[in-house]
Design a protein that fits this description.
Oligomer: heterodimer
Number of strands of chain B: 12
Number of strands of chain A: 11
Order of helices and strands of chain A: EEEEEEEEEEE
Radius of gyration of chain A: 13 Å
Structural class of chain B: mainly beta
Number of helices of chain A: 0
Largest interface: A-B, 27 and 21 residues
Shape of chain B: globular
Strand content of chain A: over 45%
Largest sheet of chain A: 7 strands, mixed
Distance between the termini of chain A: 36 Å
Largest sheet of chain B: 6 strands, mixed
Protein backbone atom coordinates (compact mmCIF):
# COMPACT_ATOMS: atom_id res chain seq x y z
CA UNK A 1 0.00 0.00 0.00
CA UNK A 2 1.21 3.47 -0.85
CA UNK A 3 1.49 6.00 1.91
CA UNK A 4 3.58 8.05 4.24
CA UNK A 5 5.32 6.64 7.28
CA UNK A 6 6.63 8.60 10.21
CA UNK A 7 8.72 7.11 12.94
CA UNK A 8 8.71 6.88 15.80
CA UNK A 9 5.15 7.64 16.89
CA UNK A 10 6.34 8.92 20.27
CA UNK A 11 9.73 10.44 20.98
CA UNK A 12 11.18 11.68 24.23
CA UNK A 13 14.33 13.79 24.55
CA UNK A 14 16.16 15.81 27.10
CA UNK A 15 16.48 19.53 26.61
CA UNK A 16 19.62 20.47 24.70
CA UNK A 17 19.67 17.39 22.49
CA UNK A 18 19.07 17.40 18.77
CA UNK A 19 16.52 14.88 17.52
CA UNK A 20 15.66 13.69 14.01
CA UNK A 21 12.16 12.73 12.93
CA UNK A 22 11.80 10.37 10.02
CA UNK A 23 9.39 10.75 7.09
CA UNK A 24 9.25 8.33 4.17
CA UNK A 25 6.77 8.17 1.29
CA UNK A 26 6.23 5.62 -1.47
CA UNK A 27 3.66 7.64 -3.38
CA UNK A 28 6.25 8.90 -5.88
CA UNK A 29 5.35 12.45 -4.87
CA UNK A 30 7.71 15.25 -5.70
CA UNK A 31 6.80 17.62 -2.88
CA UNK A 32 7.11 17.00 0.83
CA UNK A 33 6.22 19.14 3.86
CA UNK A 34 6.74 19.32 7.59
CA UNK A 35 4.13 20.86 9.87
CA UNK A 36 4.00 21.48 13.56
CA UNK A 37 0.66 21.16 15.35
CA UNK A 38 -0.08 22.69 18.72
CA UNK A 39 -3.50 22.67 20.42
CA UNK A 40 -5.75 25.41 19.10
CA UNK A 41 -3.27 26.59 16.47
CA UNK A 42 -3.89 24.35 13.53
CA UNK A 43 -0.91 23.37 11.40
CA UNK A 44 2.08 25.61 10.88
CA UNK A 45 4.53 25.00 8.07
CA UNK A 46 8.14 24.38 9.09
CA UNK A 47 9.86 23.43 5.82
CA UNK A 48 8.86 22.18 2.41
CA UNK A 49 10.63 20.67 -0.55
CA UNK A 50 9.38 20.52 -4.10
CA UNK A 51 12.29 18.60 -5.60
CA UNK A 52 15.25 16.57 -4.42
CA UNK A 53 18.18 18.56 -3.03
CA UNK A 54 16.07 21.70 -2.66
CA UNK A 55 13.91 22.95 0.20
CA UNK A 56 12.45 26.20 1.48
CA UNK A 57 11.72 27.61 4.90
CA UNK A 58 8.15 27.79 6.00
CA UNK A 59 6.62 30.09 8.57
CA UNK A 60 8.37 28.69 11.65
CA UNK A 61 11.73 27.30 10.44
CA UNK A 62 13.87 28.68 13.26
CA UNK A 63 15.42 25.87 15.29
CA UNK A 64 14.71 23.23 12.66
CA UNK A 65 16.68 21.76 9.75
CA UNK A 66 15.86 19.35 6.93
CA UNK A 67 17.48 17.47 4.09
CA UNK A 68 16.10 16.01 0.87
CA UNK A 69 18.70 13.67 -0.54
CA UNK A 70 16.16 11.18 -1.87
CA UNK A 71 12.72 11.68 -3.35
CA UNK A 72 11.21 9.31 -0.81
CA UNK A 73 12.70 10.80 2.35
CA UNK A 74 12.47 14.16 4.11
CA UNK A 75 13.87 13.96 7.66
CA UNK A 76 13.39 16.82 10.08
CA UNK A 77 15.94 17.66 12.78
CA UNK A 78 14.73 19.55 15.81
CA UNK A 79 17.79 21.31 17.14
CA UNK A 80 18.56 22.52 20.64
CA UNK A 81 17.96 26.04 19.34
CA UNK A 82 14.22 25.38 19.08
CA UNK A 83 12.85 27.05 22.18
CA UNK A 84 9.66 25.07 22.57
CA UNK A 85 10.04 21.79 20.69
CA UNK A 86 7.34 19.75 22.43
CA UNK A 87 4.60 19.32 19.81
CA UNK A 88 2.96 16.97 17.33
CA UNK A 89 4.84 16.89 14.03
CA UNK A 90 3.17 15.96 10.76
CA UNK A 91 4.80 15.12 7.46
CA UNK A 92 2.91 15.40 4.19
CA UNK A 93 3.52 14.94 0.50
CA UNK A 94 1.88 15.97 -2.74
CA UNK A 95 2.27 15.54 -6.46
CA UNK A 96 4.07 18.25 -8.36
CA UNK A 97 1.88 21.29 -9.01
CA UNK A 98 -0.82 20.07 -6.63
CA UNK A 99 -2.21 21.51 -3.42
CA UNK A 100 -3.72 18.19 -2.35
CA UNK A 101 -1.58 16.83 0.44
CA UNK A 102 -1.35 13.34 1.92
CA UNK A 103 -0.38 13.12 5.57
CA UNK A 104 1.57 10.69 7.67
CA UNK A 105 0.35 9.55 11.11
CA UNK A 106 2.56 12.05 12.96
CA UNK A 107 5.24 11.97 15.64
CA UNK A 108 4.62 13.33 19.11
CA UNK A 109 7.84 14.81 20.47
CA UNK A 110 8.21 15.55 24.16
CA UNK A 111 11.27 17.42 25.39
CA UNK A 112 11.88 17.72 29.11
CA UNK B 1 -2.90 38.77 4.39
CA UNK B 2 -4.00 35.25 3.53
CA UNK B 3 -5.86 33.53 6.32
CA UNK B 4 -8.39 30.87 7.18
CA UNK B 5 -10.86 31.33 10.02
CA UNK B 6 -12.86 28.60 11.66
CA UNK B 7 -15.05 30.51 14.12
CA UNK B 8 -16.07 27.53 16.22
CA UNK B 9 -13.40 25.94 18.39
CA UNK B 10 -15.72 23.06 19.22
CA UNK B 11 -19.24 21.95 18.36
CA UNK B 12 -21.46 19.32 19.95
CA UNK B 13 -24.26 17.66 17.99
CA UNK B 14 -26.53 14.75 18.70
CA UNK B 15 -26.10 11.59 16.71
CA UNK B 16 -28.41 11.72 13.71
CA UNK B 17 -28.60 15.50 13.70
CA UNK B 18 -27.31 17.66 10.87
CA UNK B 19 -23.93 19.36 11.00
CA UNK B 20 -22.46 22.53 9.58
CA UNK B 21 -18.89 23.61 10.24
CA UNK B 22 -17.99 27.13 9.22
CA UNK B 23 -14.93 28.28 7.33
CA UNK B 24 -14.06 31.74 6.05
CA UNK B 25 -10.94 32.55 4.07
CA UNK B 26 -9.05 35.59 2.96
CA UNK B 27 -7.24 35.19 -0.32
CA UNK B 28 -6.98 37.53 -3.27
CA UNK B 29 -7.12 35.07 -6.12
CA UNK B 30 -9.38 32.13 -6.90
CA UNK B 31 -8.91 29.82 -3.94
CA UNK B 32 -8.17 26.15 -3.84
CA UNK B 33 -10.16 24.97 -0.82
CA UNK B 34 -9.98 21.82 1.27
CA UNK B 35 -11.51 20.16 4.28
CA UNK B 36 -9.47 17.61 6.23
CA UNK B 37 -10.42 15.44 9.21
CA UNK B 38 -8.11 14.32 12.01
CA UNK B 39 -8.82 11.62 14.57
CA UNK B 40 -6.97 12.00 17.90
CA UNK B 41 -3.26 11.31 17.57
CA UNK B 42 -3.50 10.68 13.84
CA UNK B 43 -2.63 12.44 10.62
CA UNK B 44 -5.06 14.38 8.47
CA UNK B 45 -7.31 12.80 5.86
CA UNK B 46 -8.73 14.74 2.95
CA UNK B 47 -12.55 14.91 3.03
CA UNK B 48 -13.14 17.04 -0.05
CA UNK B 49 -11.71 19.78 -2.22
CA UNK B 50 -12.84 22.63 -4.44
CA UNK B 51 -10.81 23.90 -7.35
CA UNK B 52 -13.40 25.21 -9.80
CA UNK B 53 -16.77 24.43 -11.33
CA UNK B 54 -19.79 23.35 -9.33
CA UNK B 55 -19.74 25.21 -6.03
CA UNK B 56 -21.28 22.29 -4.15
CA UNK B 57 -18.73 19.53 -3.78
CA UNK B 58 -19.20 16.04 -2.45
CA UNK B 59 -16.64 14.26 -0.37
CA UNK B 60 -16.07 11.03 1.45
CA UNK B 61 -18.08 9.78 4.45
CA UNK B 62 -21.20 11.64 3.32
CA UNK B 63 -19.77 15.14 3.70
CA UNK B 64 -20.34 18.03 1.34
CA UNK B 65 -19.20 21.64 1.21
CA UNK B 66 -20.39 24.73 -0.57
CA UNK B 67 -18.14 27.46 -1.91
CA UNK B 68 -19.68 30.94 -1.68
CA UNK B 69 -17.39 33.48 -3.25
CA UNK B 70 -19.51 36.46 -2.13
CA UNK B 71 -19.15 35.38 1.49
CA UNK B 72 -15.59 34.02 1.23
CA UNK B 73 -16.88 30.87 2.82
CA UNK B 74 -16.52 27.14 2.37
CA UNK B 75 -18.76 25.52 4.97
CA UNK B 76 -18.79 21.78 5.56
CA UNK B 77 -22.08 19.95 6.01
CA UNK B 78 -23.41 16.52 6.76
CA UNK B 79 -27.15 15.71 6.93
CA UNK B 80 -26.89 13.06 9.65
CA UNK B 81 -23.93 12.74 11.99
CA UNK B 82 -22.65 9.38 13.19
CA UNK B 83 -20.72 8.83 16.42
CA UNK B 84 -17.66 7.94 14.33
CA UNK B 85 -17.60 11.48 12.92
CA UNK B 86 -16.27 12.80 16.23
CA UNK B 87 -12.89 14.27 15.30
CA UNK B 88 -11.19 17.56 14.52
CA UNK B 89 -11.90 19.21 11.20
CA UNK B 90 -9.58 21.59 9.40
CA UNK B 91 -10.39 23.95 6.58
CA UNK B 92 -7.46 24.87 4.33
CA UNK B 93 -6.64 27.19 1.44
CA UNK B 94 -4.00 26.57 -1.18
CA UNK B 95 -1.91 29.67 -1.74
CA UNK B 96 0.83 30.58 -4.15
CA UNK B 97 3.88 28.35 -4.43
CA UNK B 98 1.80 25.30 -3.52
CA UNK B 99 1.76 26.12 0.14
CA UNK B 100 -1.39 25.60 2.15
CA UNK B 101 -2.78 27.63 5.02
CA UNK B 102 -4.81 25.73 7.60
CA UNK B 103 -7.46 27.00 9.96
CA UNK B 104 -7.15 26.39 13.69
CA UNK B 105 -9.62 23.53 13.52
CA UNK B 106 -13.06 22.73 14.92
CA UNK B 107 -13.43 19.80 17.26
CA UNK B 108 -16.68 17.92 16.80
CA UNK B 109 -18.26 16.07 19.71
CA UNK B 110 -21.16 13.70 19.04
CA UNK B 111 -23.56 12.85 21.83
CA UNK B 112 -25.74 9.75 21.91
Amino acid sequence: DGGITQSPKYLFRKEGQNVTLSCEQNLNHDAMYWYRQDPGQGLRLIYYSQIVNDFQKGDIAEGYSVSREKKESFPLTVTSAQKNPTAFYLCASSMADSYEQYFGPGTRLTVT
Amino acid sequence: AQSVTQPDIHITVSEGASLELRCNYSYGATPYLFWYVQSPGQGLQLLLKYFSGDTLVQGIKGFEAEFKRSQSSFNLRKPSVHWSDAAEYFCAVGTGGFKTIFGAGTRLFVKA
